[in-house]
Design a protein that fits this description.
alpha+beta, Double-stranded beta-helix, seven-stranded mixed sheet, three-stranded antiparallel sheet, 14 strands, 23% helix, globular
């Protein structure tokens, strides 16, 4: 049966109803999903029935899965990260628990695994427990960086062209000081990296997008510290424009999939003490570095 989909916005996102991610995916359906991801960057598969194993199996259709850096977060399987304020045993965690603080940091615009030399390709997030309709917050918002780049004034494009940002997993601790330090091995495995602020996409006829994050650092390199912070703040405000948005209103058993190369995302804050929210995420490894305007691309 062909995959039926409906557009969410003109520029980003589709919903699919007649698909079962727990089953083996045939080649035609896989190719259709990849085409939709390239064109619309975000897919919501409705009414799924998944656990960690079946999510991992579906993710493997798109590449190898990342393993999460820290060994003691809310997960049982090293390839699955629980985006949750609930422990792996089902306990509703205190909002000051480090595992929840890490989730709160996700309310800042970011792209997954930007702290890796090869940042993530796709992320897939399954809603096991979602907030009730009357709750405020909990949605996941996405901002389209292809559109954002096209909308930049020309003088800003020129200003950004040579600039990079440092992405450091350990530097999350600067933003969230209550988080415990990484171990020496964790720091060794994930040293800071820099990526161009303008990303060039060889698979999109060299189209350009913005590529930065707010959950690992709040500065831009290549200029003074003060200027870098001011530019970063300007960029955050610029991409926080509803014309670039897709806002996902979660329903139970939604599976969402997005392209980290061209979308930034954030969760809207909610009452972490009052409500339970539990999701499992698999992340597809990137296989290429972030190319910039001055990269030598073969």
């Amino acid at each position: 049966m062909p995959i039926d989909f409906e557009n969410i916005t003109d520029h980003t996102g589709v919903r699919i109803y007649n698909f079962d991610a727990a089953k083996n995916v045939d080649e035609d359906d896989l190719n259709e999903i990849k085409k939709l991801m390239q064109k619309k960057h975000f897919i919501c598969f409705k009414n799924q029935k998944l656990d960690e194993d079946s999510l991992i199996n579906f993710c493997r259709n798109f590449g190898n899965l990342e393993s999460y850096p820290e060994k003691n977060k809310t997960k049982k399987n090293i390839q699955i990260f629980n985006v949750a304020n609930i422990s792996a045993d089902g306990e509703h965690l205190n909002e000051n628990d480090p595992r929840v603080v890490l989730q709160k940091n996700n309310s800042r615009w970011h792209t997954d695994s930007s702290y890796r030399f090869y940042p993530a390709l796709y992320s897939l997030l399954f809603g096991k427990e979602t907030l009730p309709k009357e709750a405020s917050g909990g949605q996941t918002q996405f901002s389209n960086m292809l559109l954002a780049y096209k909308s930049l004034p020309e003088d800003i494009k020129e200003k950004l062209k040579p600039l990079h940002q440092v992405h450091s997993y350990n530097d999350i601790r600067r933003l969230e000081p209550s988080l415990p330090e990484l171990t020496i091995d964790e720091k060794r495995n994930f040293p800071p990296v820099t990526h161009p602020l303008i990303r060039v996409h060889p698979d999109r006829a060299m189209e350009k997008s913005l590529f930065f994050t707010s959950n690992t650092s709040l500065e831009i390199g290549g200029m003074s510290f003060k200027e870098g912070k001011e530019l970063h703040s300007w960029l955050v405000n610029f991409i926080s424009n509803e014309e670039f948005y897709l806002t996902h209103e979660w329903e139970l058993n939604d599976l969402i999939m997005w392209d980290n190369r061209v979308l930034l995302h954030r969760v809207l804050p909610y009452d972490y003490s009052k409500y339970r929210r539990a999701m499992i995420r698999g992340t597809i490894e990137g296989t290429k570095p972030v190319y910039g305007p001055f990269s030598q691309i073969n």
